[in-house]
């Protein structure tokens, strides 16, 4: 087998782009006698890779006695036998040796003796109590010592089976859903030993020293009077919104993310030392967490690939039972984040059943889920799970049988989900050009990764008129949702990068908070100066990334601070769209040289203006919205049209969302009906000459994604 | 037209049971020239009644100048013309003269001058600030003075058009969704003038005097040292879970609900004084709020009917886009609450479109919604809205056109939703016997109305191992959801009533908190003593309704207090069901004479036992669950089977929920697929002789409710 490589667009084998179709398959749950049979079934359905956890819990039930091998008849500990079987079936393997796994195992797959006998390694709350018995402090020296011993046994086995050694292991994943077991149950880890509180050479004091240089600078930034870095302890995650407290809490999160990256580096180094030469992968537990991995991506560089998990329901705690448009929004921004981080968007846990029997995960919904992920950029995935079986005795957290409603049942029965996956796999394998295709866009939406990292350290607005978290919600539930309903074709850019600044072909929408990095503000100024068309809403930044006053963009625009409207009843009319529905609104004097575009009717206060800078133009819109009304579609269109929008797609109903993907030669339009009722839609695609190509009328069943491949001579207008 | 009457089972005309099919139709939005045409369309679709707000805002734009009549060409203020038109079309009318309405009108339909010029009438927070500019303090003397003036004009008009006066008005609704505009934005109203804080003859001090008799008793109950009732101010809605503070907060809510009932009594008295002789109706804003109207129901007696509003989505803030099984749970307990309060379950706002264009309300989903409501007990409804139109200038809160995606569009276009409603209306009119049918049950679930009233005054558990709110969640998301998935047929009983105590035909499941009314505890004892079969989980009450120590039930059972399990990992096996999934678990010594039924396996601690009392039996189950796993179905069945369950229905999949309704002669089985994928189901019904009648296999489309009418000779086993 040849090594699987990847670039920023797709996986490749021997330079040929391929789609990765992996299936989770646990040798410790599936009886050994069924391995080959089920692997062949997976291959027959189009799969090319398997993934498995290697649970520490199962292999070291007593401390110091690590057991691997075929001694159990059912193969519970026979990792080598499993890797051998995969290789014989011609399937690649993604190996996941932990240390932590979850997988609904007791203590998340960590040994009981570790969690019970060594409480000091636990991830801790600020008050020193443990977050959860299965939450460990990643960099605690004693935990690392135990991990090193575990890796010293498991890694050499894996090293024997990597692709370069003639085996099937194409990728190795360190840990699993890092940070989830801290943040879901509490917040970041404050284990004092790990973080080195109170020690000048402690991890956190060193981080602060690196950031502030001197304790005086830190005290100035925090409004404190610490004697030294050792005593500059973190503060509670309160709602207090004074800049110095937001800054202090943000510092701790920056530190925490960096410490998790340090852990990842240690794990990778250890694995390399034992001869594992595959690229490393890791999965963010959900789209909201992707942004927490920026430090790790930088530390690990090109030998690492971050993917995400895209569940839509795992129990009654979830909002939606099926992959709805709200799910599609998550899929879209998650895939776009991964793309912008330089990875082919990979979904390492794509729902294939659920750890809960109810609400049920249904085959038709699953197919809609897969096709939606594909439509919005997925370049490879791992079905979680392809098949299950009984948990090793005492190891199951929920029930004793880990069935998951998987495509292949625990008695080898083939369920309808199997045929649905085969249908999807066949589709991607027959359209493998799609892995080099990208989404065609007619306007851009900015993503500020910091917006997605802020909800825990900047919860409440306080005196701030608009927070990062609010801007992030506006991006997703406002402009992005409105755009899909209006059959516009947004693509995302990362404000932290330079790559978008020189591209002035399509307008850019920025949902801004009062805080934006100084460099990002400068980039927006450069963009407009070079002829770029910008819409910024609902405020203009007044602070930089560290909450220090910074008005680079506002000064360039000649704008005063935006003021939050205080009237209980307001009526907003912008660009001819009357009484458009909004959440918060802001007003501001129209800057010198700008043209007023909108007004709050009861007060006559201006709430939108436009100002030109040569070919460039900036529109400020003092209005936030969550998509709910047709008027919001009209407003977004009106603003973009003013800025030269050349629309790529038309869909006759907001019920059907679209995604146009092209590799430059071949193109495909995805039509998504993510509602529980059928719908008839007429769709059109814009040609380069500005005329519309009608794709006719179609009736889509409930929860149905359909595709239309366009003739080779159709070339689109702009924004490609 | 003849008066519409109602008893505790259905609406009646001249003694004949009928189904009320009303449609919301706003004369102030629909142009006058379209009234008759659209009314005829409604009638052609099977409707027999219209409902309309009469917005104070529209009729008294300037204080003191109340305008009614046909002066506007569009009929915006022509109430009489509208009532005349309805009468000519043979349609009844539900008149809703406010004073408050909402209906997405500015200030909820209250005049701007009222909300802007008289801030003292506002509902207030504990700190004296206004809750919201549209939230009024119902009993504020100045507000009542203005209401009396408004009613003095509007009520005589309505009185001329009641059915007994030869007009169409069958019901009059006072106000709308009472309490919603307080509780959604803050909590109960603390307007000091209204509530009489600080005055011995104030409303709240009098309430306290009535409850405690002397200030010493109050101080003893609160742990305070108030000099008199006047100074016994309410306290903040904190998380503090000390009994004396829960008690004090609960007192304020009891007082608040009573004050709203007092307001309702005043409004009704005023309307009666002006000659309105119809029964009065009111709509609870949602199922969660039904329990807040117990005092009102008692005050108003038989001349009053409470209904509820059953939306499933009105915007992105809602959890689900379509009527899912979770929605069915809400419908079920809401209808059961209304039935237990003595009313034919009426849904005064049954979704017919939405105030948001997105997420869309789709015709197929709507039909599933209507049929689900019918399957679970609805006896009459009002489509909100049947048709809309432009808001009167400046009166619209969201957009200028109040279209709502209604069945009849604002240009008289007939939308698919119209035909769906016709289909539903035809169904109920052709099966009008269903209005005298009730749900056949094979076991009972207790409802303690106080559980549904507690979330605001008893938010956190504190030292309490189990709160009212947790017991309520367990009821809905645990046992009730499991029961429907297992195709069991639960019906609900009201613990506060006596009617269920002597009925020992089916087992009773009680989800209990640490608090239960002393009378209710006594009833449970009497029930078991008379041979009743009881399951109580996850704790036994240790306090009465006022949080005073009270162990009537526990002492009868000879049980010690249940102790919350503290192990991080637990494994529960009960009645042979191994490792059943649970949330919180409790253990307790097995009382003398009881048989142990379940154990936590790691510790060996007992978590379930059963004790017999003659024919009666009580099972304690120290386990809470939210439905997620098949094992939970098995556990519920095993417990009920032990208590003599005679199951009424079998459905071959948890995806299809059932409801069997019978009037004793005719019977119908409803099969509900409230998922977005189709499903094939085999269903069976139990006959009196214990054999099963197979109803064959059916494939239900996504979001489809189907019915099977049973042959007349099928008689069911038990529980009727």
From TrEMBL, chains A, B:
Q: Name one Pfam family in it.
A: GLMA_2nd
Per the similarity annotation, which family is this? Belongs to the glycosyl hydrolase 35 family.
Q: Which domain of life is it from?
A: Bacteria
One molecular function GO term is: hydrolase activity, hydrolyzing O-glycosyl compounds
Annotated GO biological processes are: carbohydrate metabolic process
Q: Which part of the chain is the Glycoside hydrolase 35 catalytic domain? A: 11-178
- Name of the protein described by the UniProt record: Beta-galactosidase
Q: What is the lineage of its organism?
A: Bacteria, Bacillati, Bacillota, Bacilli, Bacillales
GLMA-like second domain location = 473-567
């Amino acid at each position: 087998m040849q090594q699987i490589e990847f670039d920023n667009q797709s996986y490749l084998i021997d330079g040929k782009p391929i789609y990765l179709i992996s299936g989770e398959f646990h040798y410790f749950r599936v009886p050994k006698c069924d391995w080959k049979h089920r692997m062949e079934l997976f291959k027959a359905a189009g799969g090319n890779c398997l993934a498995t956890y290697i649970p520490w819990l199962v292999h070291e039930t007593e401390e110091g006695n690590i057991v691997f091998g075929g001694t159990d008849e059912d193969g519970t500990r026979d990792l080598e036998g499993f890797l051998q079987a995969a290789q014989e079936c011609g399937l690649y393997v993604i190996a996941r040796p932990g240390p932590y796994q979850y997988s609904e195992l007791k203590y998340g797959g960590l040994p009981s003796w570790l969690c019970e006998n060594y409480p000091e390694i636990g991830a801790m709350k600020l008050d020193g109590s443990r977050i959860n018995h299965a939450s460990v402090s990643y960099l605690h020296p004693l935990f690392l010592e135990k991990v090193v011993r575990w890796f010293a046994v498991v890694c050499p086995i894996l090293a024997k089976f990597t692709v370069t050694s003639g085996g099937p292991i194409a990728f190795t994943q360190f840990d699993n859903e890092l940070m989830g077991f801290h943040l879901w149950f509490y917040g970041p880890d404050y284990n004092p030993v790990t973080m080195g509180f109170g020690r000048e050479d402690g991890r956190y004091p060193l981080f602060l020293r690196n950031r502030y240089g001197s304790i005086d600078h830190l005290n100035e930034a925090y409004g404190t009077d610490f004697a030294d870095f050792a005593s500059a302890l973190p503060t509670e995650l309160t709602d207090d919104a004074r800049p110095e407290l937001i800054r202090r809490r943000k510092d701790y999160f920056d530190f925490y993310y960096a410490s998790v990256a340090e852990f990842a580096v240690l794990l990778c180094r250890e694995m390399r030392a034992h001869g594992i030469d595959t690229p490393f992968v890791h999965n963010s537990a959900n789209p909201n967490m992707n942004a927490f991995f920026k430090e790790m991506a930088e530390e690990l560089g090109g030998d690492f690939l971050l993917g995400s998990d895209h569940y839509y329901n795992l129990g009654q705690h979830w909002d939606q039972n099926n992959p709805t448009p709200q799910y599609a929004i998550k899929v879209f921004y998650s895939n776009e984040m991964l793309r912008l981080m330089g990875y082919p968007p990979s979904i390492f846990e794509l729902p294939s059943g659920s750890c809960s029997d109810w609400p049920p995960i249904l085959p038709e919904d699953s197919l809609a889920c897969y096709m939606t992920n594909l439509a919005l950029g997925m370049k490879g995935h791992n079905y979680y799970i392809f098949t299950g079986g009984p948990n090793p005795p005492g190891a199951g957290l929920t029930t004793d049988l880990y069935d998951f409603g998987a495509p292949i049942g625990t008695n080898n029965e083939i369920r309808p989900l199997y045929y649905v996956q085969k249908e999807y796999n066949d589709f991607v394998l027959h359209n493998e050009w799609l892995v080099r295709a990208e989404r065609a866009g007619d306007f851009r939406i900015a993503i500020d990764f910091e917006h997605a990292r802020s909800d825990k350290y900047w919860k409440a607005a306080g005196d701030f008129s608009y927070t990062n978290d609010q801007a992030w919600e506006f991006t997703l539930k406002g402009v992005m949702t409105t755009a899909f309903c209006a059959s516009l074709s947004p693509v995302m850019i990362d404000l932290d990068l330079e790559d978008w600044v020189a591209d002035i072909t399509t307008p850019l929408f920025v949902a801004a908070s009062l805080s934006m990095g100084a460099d990002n503000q400068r980039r927006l100024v450069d963009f407009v100066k070079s002829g770029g068309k910008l819409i910024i809403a609902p405020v203009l930044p007044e602070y930089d990334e560290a909450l220090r006053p910074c008005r680079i963009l506002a000064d360039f625009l000649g704008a005063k601070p935006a003021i939050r409207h205080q009237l209980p009843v307001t009526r907003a009319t912008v660009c001819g769209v009357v009484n458009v529905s909004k959440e918060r609104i802001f007003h501001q004097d129209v800057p010198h040289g700008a043209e007023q575009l909108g007004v709050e009717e009861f007060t006559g206060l201006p709430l939108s203006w436009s100002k030109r800078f040569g070919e460039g133009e900036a529109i400020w819109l003092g209005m936030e919205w969550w998509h709910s009304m047709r008027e919001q579609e009209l407003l977004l269109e009106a603003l973009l049209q003013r800025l030269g929008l050349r629309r790529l797609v038309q869909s006759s109903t907001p019920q059907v969302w679209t995604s146009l993907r092209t590799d430059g030669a071949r193109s495909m339009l995805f039509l998504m009906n993510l509602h529980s009722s059928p719908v008839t839609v007429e769709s059109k695609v814009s040609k380069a000459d500005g005329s519309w190509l009608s794709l006719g009328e179609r009736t889509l069943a409930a929860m149905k994604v359909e595709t239309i491949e366009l003739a080779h001579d159709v070339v689109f207008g702009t924004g490609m």
